[in-house]
Amino acid sequence: MRRTMLACIQKQLTGGLLPWAVQSAAAEQFNCSLAAVEEFTLENGILPARYQRNQNMISTAEQLLLFRSRIAVIGCGGLGGYVIEELARLGVGGIVAIDPDVFEEHNLNRQLLATPRTLGQAKAKAALNRVNEINPAVTVTPIIDAFCEANGHDLLNGVTVVVDALDCISCRLELAEICTEMQIPLVHGAIGGWYGHVATQLPGDTTVQSIYRNWVQGKGIEKELGNPAFTPAVVASLQVAEACKIVLGKGELLRRRKLSIDLLDMEIHEILYGSTADVIYLPTRDIESARAAG
Question: Do residues 117 and 176 share a domain?
Fold first, then answer.
């Protein structure tokens, strides 16, 4: 059947690319999923047409790596909605969307998955529905539950990369510890008002613990500063870029350093961390000191 499918697909390529209509027809004709057709074509060096604007920076072999990856997004709200959208459009084949909450009206100003129609709907379920609309070849596993120390190992089983889109510092610290135990790379992001930061923590690093070394209790400053529409979009995009580089094994990661973003004064600074959780260089006000900046 595989040879027959390949021959059928090759006859219908457009400029060497696999059109979506052909991919859909092949799934129906050969009684397999859209995901199976996508993986099969990528294995044979054929790029689905939807990824043609990727190909000058991501090869077909690398597109297959992305498709075979499984990325967990912890939190499907402000950051998480944008992360899930971009991962699906990028061609990440498996997304685990974890969030216990439902959409409320105050989410409508910034959360990509929040619409009047999805009010009251579980955020993880909305993530599944959205991805099914934009890239049905991507498999989304929605988990309507809160990530915690008790269930963390089960939720992250088989995951390639974890993206932190939480709004709870204690949960972030638990997530960082579990990722270390499970040897899973973690892309951390946080936002508040005009400010945000991004860092990547590989197994053995303690960057997230260093960032929140002075934290005592509470969620941080998001509730105090609020969040506009643009801050989560910026930080989430940087997180997706980091996750992409981890999967592909290319580029320079934000490892042992934090990119601190001030969209009010349009300043971006780098904060370096040592392997012993001590800050080496701190040239900026970061998100946890944004309170003083007003």
Answer: yes
